[in-house]
Amino acid sequence: MKQNAVLRRSPAGAKPLRHRFAGALSRYRWFYLMMIPGLLYYVVYHYIPMAGMIIAFKDYSLGKGIIGSDWVGLDNFRIIFNSPDFYELLRNTLLISLYRILFNMLPDVLLALMLNEVRILWFKRLIQTVTYGPYFLSWVIVYGLAVAFLAQDSGIVNYYIRELGGSPVNYLASNDYFRPIILLTDMWKNTGFGAIIYLAALATINTELYEAAVVDGAGRWRQLWHITLPGIRDVFVLLLILKIGHIMDAGFEQIYIFLNARVYEVGDIIDTWVFRRGLEELEFSIAIATNLFKSVIGFILIIGANKVAKKLGGSGIW
Amino acid sequence: MKASKLCIPLAMILAFALILGACTSENKNNGGNTSTSENAGSTGTGKTDGEDSGEERLKLNWFVSSSGDAVLPEGDADFIGQAIEEKFNVDLNIQYMPGGGDFDSKISLLLASGDTPDLFTAAGVASQKFILDGVTADMSPFVTPEKMPNYFKWISKTELERYAVEGKFERAPLIFPREVYRSYYIRQDWLDTLKLQMPTNYEEMIKVMDAFTFDDPDQNGKNDTYGLTTVGNGTSLSFDFPQWIENGLIGALMVRDNKYVDVQSDLAVEQVLQGIKDMMKKGTVDPDWFLLKGTEHVDKAVGGKAGIIIGGSKTFAFDSEPTSIQNKTLALNPKANWMPFHPFAQTGTWTENLPDQPFMFSRETAEKNPEKIDRIVQILDWMASEEGFLLINYGIEGKHYTRSGNTITVTQSNQDAYRKDVVEQGNFQEVYRFFYLHNPEYEPLGLEVVDERMSDRDRQITQTIQSYKLYPSIGTNVAPPVGFNLADFRKKMREYQVQVLFDEPDASNWPKYVEELLTKYGGQQMIDTYTEQIKAAGVIK
């Protein structure tokens, strides 16, 4: 740093800049070379395809291609915002996303903290393995399980309700139960896996801190409050910011499988709409326009959240 | 030092090579069975003594929908592909996948990338989009009675004309079955136990359903059976409910009093909804029906939970079909006997079939290499001929069937040979059978098939179902107006239907919902457009 500052003030100011660049380039040439495949990957597969987004402003026709299709300005966006159910979709998307942030991040942390307190190593490993197992199941299987438990006629839960003299409830087709079921199954499937990141963060906390706290007379709760939680705060904030950036994605795969006509009112989200409209009806322009809209919102939120996180004293993502 | 300097670039080259390798191998997968057909092609090049020996050998790319279990085999097991390549002097490269969302995406991708297959199939909605987008070729120089005499034995000229999209003759229907095998099936053994007669009309059917629910037809002492089971896929009001036809609503689209009727959003649906509501309240229909998906209702019927179910295929309850509902139920209950019936057998059980999926030609190929399309037309016409039909659907004569006059006989040993040569070779016939949708029928060719495995009961079932009366169809394929969002309209319609069905005290709100569907969701616009199209076809005045 200091050296740089000295260089900048050196008399031959104009030339060295290029020199320095060339120098750095040759000095770290292998590193730069090694970066190329990675960069190429991003350019080829992530940046060049972005040009395709222009069809959000076009009436895309397969025959005319991306370049040749007619420009329609903001018509596609008008269609989206004027479609009668759009605000219901938006509301469902945001609500489900917010619930997910709330009810999925906290259990992750909780499980990690509890595992962290377990002293018997084999038991800890066992629990960890058992809890992240469901992560590898597909949503179709999880839905199958949900049906086995909750179906109105053949589900276990309703079987007991009937045996005990109650009247069966059609949980999977109920506006009241749809979102809780989505969140519970999500929690069941993903909590074990989500805890791993926090466990990793917990493992990096210097054990001397705990020893020092014990010497100072801190109990378990005090240690938790003053050492453990601050230790994972950065990771938590990082994940929170990332999740906020994805607030317009309410989990297509899961919702698509769980959704049925009786719960459209609380469960139909933007992505399922895009699926119906964009893929089933082949209206690519509408699909792209919606995703562009989603991305812009996500982008703004992620920048905003990062700023807020930095203001509040923590560190953001960058 | 030197060694390490060399190492880094080498490692990088290696890494790069790996990435590239991954890419190319992926391409190969996407490309379907390029290598296979090339193999087959090279065996054929030696002997160009086929019909078109004078013409140059052409390379043709096809993209067709097939059943999920079909795979073109390596080597020379594929006798159909070989026959085509030798006969027509072509290298055939067929890509295939099951129809559905993935198929539509893949073909759209191929079309968008300019890598258009010379011949491709598509679902109805997608084909309209392709035609309006201008990627398909005008078929008038190619698909003519002169060039395709055999094809026109299956599909009439009127059907072809009415199948056009906005007056453009750029798609033609794949050969589709004329017979409709949709029928109710009932547990005859339950009827016998309860000493009931086979129902012949709506009222009797409802009575039998009541008896199946409350009178313990399986005699297990528990109240655990239902009259009817069906599948709602979590979205829709199944057409399996007899209340539809009882209230004069048949099929998905129909003409009533010289007017087009969108069946599912019609005002008469109010009575349908009320009828189903009453039935659900009584508890004679499987309460899980709405959330059941795919064929889960069949499993329930097999498990002895319900006594009536609708089957759509010819072999649904055959003895000779190992996976039929009859054989599956027999495995659990040796007395089970599923027999067909229809409460509306005399008046009309369904509408006649309309052309289903089309095949289309690439516009690019038609402009640059019209000779390729000509050759494809020859191949397709051969596929529609008796020779092609038999090879594609029944295999090789003498080996997989025997023939005397117009009678085709399939014995058990023929069937075993077929299993060995075709089914175990990837069931590859299904790939070529893209040209014949669903159950290919032999009647239009004047053939008769004697399948020795079929039992008398099977023949009786076929006879019963073939005796059902059908309503005429709306006579033409229709396309929704440009800009109209069919998906949103249907979604809202279904939402209202299930709301009435499950959450409201009666169906009296339906007319209000229909009003909203017609105005706010553009339904009237759709009905008007369909009406015009049907008028243009001359079906209504």
From TrEMBL, chain A:
UniProt keyword Transit peptide, yes or no: no
Alphabetical UniProt keywords: Membrane, Transmembrane, Transmembrane helix, Transport
Regions crossing the membrane: 30-48, 94-115, 136-161, 284-305
Transport among keywords: yes
Domain ABC transmembrane type-1, first and last residues per copy: 90-305
Main location: membrane
A Pfam family: BPD_transp_1
Localisation per UniProt entry: Cell membrane; Membrane
PROSITE patterns: ABC_TM1
Membrane topology: Multi-pass membrane protein
Family: Belongs to the binding-protein-dependent transport system permease family.
Entry-linked PANTHER family: POLYGALACTURONAN_RHAMNOGALACTURONAN TRANSPORT SYSTEM PERMEASE PROTEIN YTEP (PTHR43496:SF1), PROTEIN LPLB (PTHR43496)
Protein name, entry field: ABC transporter permease
UniProtKB/TrEMBL annotation, chain B:
UniProt feature, compositional bias: Polar residues: 29-46
Alphabetic keyword roster: Signal
Signal peptide: 1-22
Coiled-coil blocks: none
Stretches the record annotates as Disordered: 29-54
Protein name: ABC transporter substrate-binding protein
